[in-house]
TrEMBL record:
Any one GO cellular component localisation term in the record: cytoplasm
SUPFAM superfamilies: ATPase domain of HSP90 chaperone/DNA topoisomerase II/histidine kinase
Segments forming domain Histidine kinase/HSP90-like ATPase: 27-184
NCBIfam families in the cross-refs: PRK05218.1
UniProt family annotation: Belongs to the heat shock protein 90 family.
The keyword Chaperone belongs to this UniProt entry's keyword annotation: yes
A Pfam family assignment: HATPase_c_3
Single GO MF descriptor: unfolded protein binding
InterPro entries tied to this protein: HATPase_C_sf (IPR036890), HATPase_dom (IPR003594), Heat_shock_protein_90_CS (IPR019805), Hsp90_fam (IPR001404), Hsp90_N (IPR020575)
Main location as per UniProt: cytoplasm
Keywords: ATP-binding, Chaperone, Cytoplasm, Nucleotide-binding, Stress response
Protein name: Chaperone protein HtpG
Gene: htpG_1
C-alpha cells in the first residue's frame, strides 16, 4: 500500500489497552455500544458541517450505521457513512488520544467493572474497547469531500504499534473491522448481535442496520434490516416511552456526551 508507515502508540494508549482488555472483559459487549455511538457522532458531525457545505453529502444524505459479520473469517464490521477522517485525523484520533482524557480514565478505573464500562464513553476512549474482543482491528476511512484516492487504512493488534497507509475508498465514512479473538464466536451470532444493538442503541436517531444474506435461485442476495427504532427518545410522545427505555436512555446518555 502507498504511504505505509508503522507508528508507536503513545504510552498512555498502551496502558489503556492493557487495562481495558483485562479489566472490562466480563462486560465485553459494550464495545458494540461504543462503536455504534461513535458512528452516530460521525453522522452528527457531517450533518452540522453540511449545513454550510451541502456538497459533503456527495449525493447521499441517507445516513446510517451498518453491522455485518463474516463467520468464515471471524470478523465483525461496523460501517458508517458519516464525516470520515483524513490521514492526519486518523493518527490524531486513533494513535494519540488526548492525554488528559486517558489519564482521567485510567485514574477512575477501579474494581467495579460495571462502573468502568460506563466511564469509557465519558472519557472519549470508546474506540479502544474493540480490543476487548478483537486481537486485530482494521479501519478503512475517507473524509467527506475528499477524493476517493485520499482514503486511509489503519490497523493494529492493540499492542505497541499501528500501521497507517493510503488507500482508495469510493464512499465516505468509516469502516471498522474486528478480527475476533478465539472464543468470541458469540459475536458472530445474528441473534446475539441484534440483541446488543437493541439493548444499547435503540435510542440513537440513526438507522442501525444488520446485514441479511439469503439464498435465492442459487445466488446470495444481500439486504439490510433496520434493528433500532432510529427515533430519538425526546421526539417520541410520553405515552410511547416505557420506564425501562427512559431509565436506559438516562444511563447511556450520561456516558455519551463527551466527544469521541
Amino acid at each position: 500500500m502507498k504511504g505505509q508507515e508503522t507508528r508507536g502508540f503513545q504510552s498512555e494508549v498502551k496502558q489503556l489497552l492493557h487495562l481495558m482488555i483485562h479489566s472490562l472483559y466480563s462486560n465485553k459487549e459494550i464495545f458494540l455500544r461504543e462503536l455504534i455511538s461513535n458512528a452516530s457522532d460521525a453522522a452528527d458531525k457531517l450533518r452540522f458541517r453540511a449545513l454550510s457545505q451541502p456538497d459533503l453529502y456527495e449525493g447521499d444524505g441517507e445516513l446510517r450505521v451498518r453491522v455485518s459479520f463474516d463467520k468464515d473469517n471471524r470478523t465483525l464490521t461496523i460501517a458508517d457513512n458519516g464525516i470520515g477522517m483524513n490521514r492526519e485525523e486518523v493518527i490524531d484520533h486513533l494513535g494519540t488520544i488526548a492525554k488528559s482524557g486517558t489519564k482521567a480514565f485510567l485514574e477512575s478505573m477501579g474494581s467495579d467493572q460495571a462502573k468502568d464500562s460506563q466511564l469509557i464513553g465519558q472519557f472519549g476512549v470508546g474506540f479502544y474497547s474493540a480490543f476487548i474482543v478483537a486481537d486485530k482491528v482494521t479501519v478503512r476511512t475517507r473524509a467527506a469531500g475528499d477524493k476517493p484516492e485520499n482514503g486511509v487504512f489503519w490497523e493494529s493488534a492493540g499492542e505497541g504499534e499501528y500501521t497507517v497507509a493510503d488507500i482508495t475508498k469510493a464512499d465516505r465514512g468509516t469502516e471498522i473491522t474486528l478480527h475476533l479473538r478465539e472464543g468470541e464466536d458469540d459475536f458472530l451470532n445474528d441473534w446475539r448481535v441484534r440483541s446488543i444493538i437493541s439493548k444499547y442503541s435503540d435510542h440513537i436517531a440513526l438507522p442501525v442496520e444488520i446485514e441479511k444474506r439469503e439464498e435465492k435461485d442459487g445466488e446470495t442476495v444481500v439486504s439490510w434490516e433496520k434493528i433500532n427504532k432510529a427515533q430519538a427518545l425526546w421526539t417520541r410522545s410520553k405515552s410511547e416511552v416505557n420506564d425501562d427505555e427512559y431509565k436506559e436512555f438516562i444511563s447511556i446518555s450520561l456516558t455519551t456526551t463527551a466527544t469521541r
